């Protein structure tokens, strides 16, 4: 049984109360439970982490890279939040640590403000799920398992 890391970036701790018209009414705890169930149904477990700090997310990606090489972790399902559009450092961490990442966004970022249309994460992502609500995390987990053939 491999572990799938689920990482959530800035402000995702506010799920359920922040702009519910964009992000829905599910809380981060709801998302984490959904991910645990989805992973278990595929024979895996999850570790969920959320941080509002870019460096902490980079450290988790580096950790994932080490644990992938050790055969402990399958990959990462990652909602980088606003860092999607600003963080070259997260891009470099994913690329440098050689981590399979499924990028997930609850809302359709392409139907929103123009600054949300560009992702620094997408070029190094194994796959992308956009605009499917919190169900996108389930699709991300399924996609990661499929893409890594595990």
SSE topology sketch:
Elements: E1 3-8, H1 20-23, H2 28-41, E2 45-50, H3 54-69, E3 73-79, H4 88-97, E4 101-105, E5 127-130, H5 135-148
Helix pairs in contact: 2-5, 3-4
Organism: Marinomonas transparens
Enzyme class: lyase
Subunit structure: Homododecamer.
Would you summarize the structure shown here?
This protein has 150 residues and is an alpha/beta fold.
Helical residue percent band = 25-40%
Count of discrete structural domains:
1
Briefly, what CATH class? Alpha Beta
CATH architecture: 3-Layer(aba) Sandwich
| Poorly predicted spans | none
- Strand residues, percent: 15-25%
Overall form: globular
Structural class: alpha/beta
* Strands, count: 5
- Relevant CATH superfamily: Dehydroquinase, class II
Please state how the strands of the largest beta sheet are arranged side by side: 2-1-3-4-5
Distance from N terminus to C terminus (CA atoms, Å) equals: 9 Å
Most strands sheet: 5 strands, parallel
Catalytic activity: 3-dehydroquinate = 3-dehydroshikimate + H2O
Keywords: Amino-acid biosynthesis, Aromatic amino acid biosynthesis, Lyase
Function: Catalyzes a trans-dehydration via an enolate intermediate.
Family: Belongs to the type-II 3-dehydroquinase family.
């Amino acid at each position: 049984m491999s572990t799938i890391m689920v990482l959530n970036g800035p402000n995702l701790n506010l799920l359920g109360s922040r702009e519910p018209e964009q992000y829905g009414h599910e809380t981060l705890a709801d998302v984490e439970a959904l991910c645990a169930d989805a992973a278990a149904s595929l024979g895996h477990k999850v570790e969920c982490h959320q941080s509002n700090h870019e460096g902490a997310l980079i450290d988790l990606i580096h950790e994932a890279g080490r644990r992938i090489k050790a055969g402990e972790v399958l990959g990462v399902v990652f909602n980088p939040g606003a860092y999607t559009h600003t963080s070259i450092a997260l891009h470099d961490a994913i690329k440098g640590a050689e981590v399979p990442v499924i990028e997930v966004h609850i809302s359709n970022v392409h139907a929103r403000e123009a600054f949300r249309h560009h992702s620094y994460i997408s070029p190094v992502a194994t796959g992308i799920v956009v605009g499917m609500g919190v169900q996108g995390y389930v699709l991300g987990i399924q996609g990661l398992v499929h893409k890594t053939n595990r």
